[in-house]
Amino acid sequence: MTDPKPVDTWLTDMDGVLVHEERAIPGASEFIAALQASGKKFLVLTNNSIFTPRDLRARLLAAGIDIPERSIWTSALATAQFLDDQRPRGTAYVIGEAGLTTALHEIGYVLTERDPDYVVLGETRTYSFEAITKAIRLIAEGARFIATNPDPTGPSQEGPLPATGSVAALITRATGVAPYFVGKPNPLMMRSALNRIEGHSETTVMIGDRMDTDIISGLEAGLRSVLVLSGSTADHEVERFPYRPTRVVQSIADVVPLVTALS
Fold first, then answer.
1. Which family does it belong to (predicted)?
2. pTM over the 0.85 mark
C-alpha cells in the first residue's frame, strides 16, 4: 500500500473477516476499537439479508464485538435504497426474512402478491417451494426480478446451505428472466455504502475474505483492498484470479496496525 493518500474511511465484510458464525475472529474487536479510536468513519458490510442491523449488532455484541447499528450496511438495506431510487413507494412480492421485509417497509413499499412491481428474492433458511412457485408465476406475468445478492451458498455449522444465488438460478431457469443482483460484487453496494458515510473511493479501504465478491467489488468501485485469509479465499487461490488485492494478510489482526499507519 504505497498510495500516499491517507485513509479517511473503511469498509469491511463481516463473515469470514470479523466472525465465523457466532464466534469472533481474533483481532476483530481490536480492529473495531482502533477504528473508533482513530475517529475514522466505517461500515461493516454483509450480503446476508436475513437480519436487520439491530439483530446483527446484538449478534456481534454477543461475540464480543461492539459495533453501532448505524455502522452496519446489509444487502437488504442496499436493495431497499435501490428500489426507492428506481420506483418510490412501489410494491413487491418478497421471499426473505425480517432484514429484507423491514428494510422495504421502512422505505414505504407495500408487500403484496397481487400484481407487484417487483419480485424481490433474499436469503432465508427456510425457502418455500410454494413461495418460489408464486415468484415464478409473478415474474412470468411481468414483475421485475431483483435479488439481494448472488452468493450460491451460505455457511452453517453443518456445512454449506443453498443461498440466494442458487434459488435465483432456479427461478431464472423456470422463467428465462435473470435478476438484477444488488449486493456484492455489484459496485452499486459499495457506492451506496460510501454515500452513507460520505466517503470517497480514493481514500477508502475495503477489507474482505472473498476475491470474487469483496475484492472485485472494491476494485471496481476504485478502492484499495485488503484480502484476509481467514475466510473463503485461500492463499493458493489468489493467483488464479486476473486481479489482485492491494494487500494480502492472514487475518483482521494484521490490519490493526494499518489503521494507524494509513490514517
1. Belongs to the HAD-like hydrolase superfamily.
2. yes
Write out the catalytic residue numbers.
13, 15
Phi first, then psi: what are they for 253, rounded to 5°? -60, -30
Instruction: Express each pLDDT in 219-240 by its tens digit.
Output: 999 999 999 999 889 999 999 9
- The crossing angle, in degrees rounded to 10, of helices 129-140 and 164-175 is 50
66 in Cβ contact with 32 (< 8 Å): yes
Structural domains of the chain ordered from first start: 9-47+184-261 (3.40.50.1000), 76-181 (3.40.50.1000)
- Rounded Cα distance, 27 and 136, in Å: 44
Kindly tell me the number of DSSP H helices and DSSP E strands found in the chain: 9, 15
Nearest CA to 184 out of 83, 47, 78 is that of 47
Beta bridge partners of 224: 205
Check residue 259 and give its pLDDT.
Answer: 87
Are the beta carbons of 250 and 27 closer than 8 angstroms? no
Give the pairing type, strands 110-111 and 91-95.
Answer: parallel
Q: Which of 4, 1, 160, 189 is nearest to 78 (CA)?
A: 189
